[in-house]
UniProtKB/TrEMBL annotation, chain A:
<feature type="transmembrane region" description="Helical">
    <location>
        <begin position="50"/>
        <end position="68"/>
    </location>
</feature>
<keyword id="KW-1003">Cell membrane</keyword>
<dbReference type="GO" id="GO:0005886">
    <property type="term" value="C:plasma membrane"/>
</dbReference>
<feature type="transmembrane region" description="Helical">
    <location>
        <begin position="75"/>
        <end position="95"/>
    </location>
</feature>
<keyword id="KW-0472">Membrane</keyword>
<feature type="transmembrane region" description="Helical">
    <location>
        <begin position="186"/>
        <end position="205"/>
    </location>
</feature>
<feature type="transmembrane region" description="Helical">
    <location>
        <begin position="132"/>
        <end position="151"/>
    </location>
</feature>
<keyword id="KW-1133">Transmembrane helix</keyword>
<keyword id="KW-0812">Transmembrane</keyword>
Automatic annotation (TrEMBL), chain B:
<dbReference type="Pfam" id="PF02653">
    <property type="entry name" value="BPD_transp_2"/>
</dbReference>
<keyword id="KW-0812">Transmembrane</keyword>
<keyword id="KW-1133">Transmembrane helix</keyword>
<feature type="transmembrane region" description="Helical">
    <location>
        <begin position="278"/>
        <end position="298"/>
    </location>
</feature>
<feature type="transmembrane region" description="Helical">
    <location>
        <begin position="34"/>
        <end position="55"/>
    </location>
</feature>
<feature type="transmembrane region" description="Helical">
    <location>
        <begin position="127"/>
        <end position="146"/>
    </location>
</feature>
<dbReference type="GO" id="GO:0022857">
    <property type="term" value="F:transmembrane transporter activity"/>
</dbReference>
<feature type="transmembrane region" description="Helical">
    <location>
        <begin position="227"/>
        <end position="245"/>
    </location>
</feature>
<feature type="transmembrane region" description="Helical">
    <location>
        <begin position="67"/>
        <end position="89"/>
    </location>
</feature>
């Protein structure tokens, strides 16, 4: 409840700051927000695109949140997502199998790729106490250059050096009936996978011994060790699962929303995952809602940019400001308390006057 | 081989300098006890403000040599202001410093492009001219060293090397430096000795903002020439250099020079026959892999400030 109030307040303040930015740069914020939300919700196609845009964010947000529960800050979701997506694309382009088997193999490859990329920082943390923030940042750039050279070498597209061949329809998560339901949107099976994974992760965190152990390590690793929990194993396991989730995000992005993998950029969804986890208060359901909200901002910004001359980066700015407010939750709490007190005293005043 | 080194070295130094000043900024912040992962964002802010101010002034007064220096100063001022966001969150509000730094990175990346698009339309800000390289008189004719260190240098290079010297002196030989380091090692003891921990940490973070932004602006005026929304991960590399240099100014100097040479080799490897045999992939990931290995090797004897990353709690023992 408390977390929800803080998250909602952070969103409100983020949107207010966005409005302020629009005013300062000479735009009309009412108009801007009207088109921003219309762009994400106006018709079934746009709603579908919002959900699709949010799908990789669900995975990366879940990845960050899961590691956070064990007290680990996985800032490398971008690299894990990229490498997972690369593994899945490699399988999709080279394996010739029936569609369900192919998609399953791609999901497993994506999970394994992301897990491998996070295993190294996990191992370094457990064995050598190397801070995971720095090692995952390094792993991000290693992933960036690995993809940069591996895609042209092994999966090169027909025309462009900078992207892989397009995945065949059988290896794509897109499904004709889904697109039809949503009026031609690119929403795809990734969304269903995301919802299933949210449920599984919620179950692991809240109802299993493993989840309990991981959380115990997150609260106090020394107390956990004293209680007989294998702390090092928990740290590695948490990173591996976290990386695997980010890898699935890569599958949803590169085999669902897009149809190939591009070189030369770290996916922004990896960093947005931090924002999603924070806004969702590290709970799986919170992550789901936060991811869809960010998906809405991202998918609506194009329409807003077409209808007004507000640059699309307003959406990124709003999201970044929301995280800042979520990070400074004490400020939010103080504000909430002050607001409550004021209302309370107003009511007392009113009561007092009645009594006179 | 010699001509190769001679050709590469000036470029390596040009690449090193923004990295060096940014890592040095991070050093002040972390030594005061505040982890600053927002170096990348602060560099972006500096590169944006620097490019914007220079772009506007060069349009108004073409050819004035002071414009570039004004741009650097403006960038530093903007960096200080922006770093206050991080300082406020991590010092006054006890926020998680890593998350706050991440927020700084994201706000900087999004906000600068948003503003640049409002101003130029395309989101890029191109300056008419940056600093021109020059050969230091007399010194450049010294054999060997002259070719390596004193040819094709930029004025900013000398300025920043001077800052490194001063910083080392300030940290190790002055009362201010001792107090700053105490705040990063054992803030409760520092407070008991009468040091205002919060103020020292504010100073540390603000210095990191000024230096990182200067790094971003130097990046523009020496080799990029154009703001396009990123500084290509230099801020993160600076963070790695800070650890690699074990939080000491000259260690950071050595680490950034190493990264500068490694990155320059990777960038030019394709046109130099003796390097073209090494796969470019190996050269590109080299700095990052080396950092990971260094982290493992230093893990037992790490000189990291002990209280870095923790919110200051005056009652904690």
């Amino acid at each position: 409840m408390r977390n929800m109030v803080i998250s909602l307040l952070a969103v409100v303040f983020g949107l207010l700051a966005g409005a302020l930015l629009m005013v300062v740069t000479g735009h009309n914020p009412m108009e801007g927000y009207k088109y921003l939300f219309e762009g994400g919700l106006k018709n079934p196609e746009r709603i579908g695109n919002t959900l699709a845009t949010g799908t990789p964010l669900i995975f990366t947000g879940l990845a960050v949140a899961f590691a956070f529960r064990t007290g680990l800050f996985n800032i490398g979701a971008a690299g894990q997502m990229l490498f997972g997506g690369f593994c899945a694309t490699a399988v999709g382009l080279n394996l010739d199998a029936a569609r369900p088997i192919l998609l399953l193999a791609m999901a497993i490859a994506g999970f394994a790729g992301g897990a491998l990329w996070a295993f190294i920082p996990g191992l370094l943390k457990a064995k050598f106490n190397v801070h995971e923030v720095v090692s995952t940042i390094m792993m991000n750039w290693i992933a960036y250059w690995t993809i940069y050279y591996a895609v042209p070498a092994y999966l090169k597209g027909e025309y462009l050096e900078t992207e892989s061949r397009a995945l065949p329809p059988a290896a794509s998560l897109r499904e004709a009936f889904l697109s039809e339901w949503f009026g031609g949107s690119y929403v795809n099976l990734g969304l269903f996978l995301a919802v299933i994974v949210v449920i599984i992760i919620a179950f692991i965190i809240n109802k299993t011994t493993v989840g309990y152990e991981l959380k115990a390590v997150g609260f106090n690793r020394y107390a956990a060790e004293y209680a007989g929990i294998a702390v090092n194993r928990s740290i590695i396991l948490s990173m591996v699962i976290s990386g695997g989730l980010a890898g699935l995000g890569g599958v949803a992005q590169y085999a669902g929303n897009a149809s190939n993998i591009q070189i030369g950029s770290l996916p922004s969804q990896g960093f947005d995952g931090i924002a999603v986890a924070l806004l969702g208060a590290n709970s799986p359901v919170g992550v789901l809602l936060a991811a869809i909200f960010f998906g809405l901002l991202y998918s609506g910004r194009g329409f807003m940019n077409a209808m007004t001359d507000i640059p699309p980066e307003i959406a990124d700015s709003i999201i970044a400001i929301i995280i800042y407010f979520a990070a400074t939750s004490i400020l939010m709490e103080r504000f909430a308390r002050w607001f409550m007190k004021r209302r309370l005293s107003a009511r007392l005043d009113a009561d007092g006057r009645k009594g006179e | 081989m010699w001509t190769l080194i001679q050709q590469i070295f000036p470029y390596a130094i040009v690449f090193t300098i923004p990295l060096l000043i940014t890592a040095l900024g991070g050093l002040f912040s972390e030594r005061s006890g505040v982890v600053n992962i927002g170096l990348e964002g602060l560099m972006v802010v500096g590169s944006f403000i620097g490019a914007l101010v220079i772009f506007k002034l060069q349009a108004a007064w073409p050819g004035n040599p002071f414009i570039l220096w004004i741009g650097l100063l403006a960038a530093m001022a903007a960096g200080v202001l922006f770093s206050l966001l991080h300082a406020f969150a991590s010092i006054n509000l006890s926020a998680n410093q890593v998350i706050s730094g991440t927020a700084i990175n994201m706000i900087a990346g999004a906000l600068t492009i948003f503003l640049a698009r409002n101003i130029t339309g395309s989101g890029n800000v191109r300056i008419t001219s940056g600093f021109l390289p020059f050969d230091v008189p007399v010194l450049s004719s010294i054999p060997i060293i002259g070719d390596l260190l004193f040819t094709k240098t930029y004025p900013t290079t000398w300025l920043i090397l001077l800052v490194v010297l001063l910083s080392s002196f300030m940290l190790n030989k002055t009362a201010f430096g001792l107090r700053l380091r105490a705040c990063g090692e054992y803030p409760q003891a520092a407070e008991a000795a009468g040091v205002n921990v919060r103020r020292m940490r504010y100073i540390g973070v603000m210095i990191s903002g000024a230096f990182s932004a200067l790094g971003g602006a130097v990046f523009i005026v020496t080799f990029a020439g154009e703001f396009n929304g990123t500084v290509a991960g230099l801020g993160f590399l600076a963070l790695a250099a800070l650890i690699f240099g074990q939080w000491r100014p000259f260690g950071v100097l050595a680490a950034t020079l190493f990264f500068g040479i490694a990155s320059t080799l990777a960038n030019v490897s394709q046109v130099i026959p003796s390097l073209a045999v090494i796969p470019p992939f190996i050269l590109k990931v080299f700095p990052y892999v080396i950092t990971l290995i260094a982290l493992v090797l230093f893990s037992k004897s790490s000189q990291a400030p002990k209280a870095a990353g923790e919110a200051f709690d005056s009652g904690k023992r």
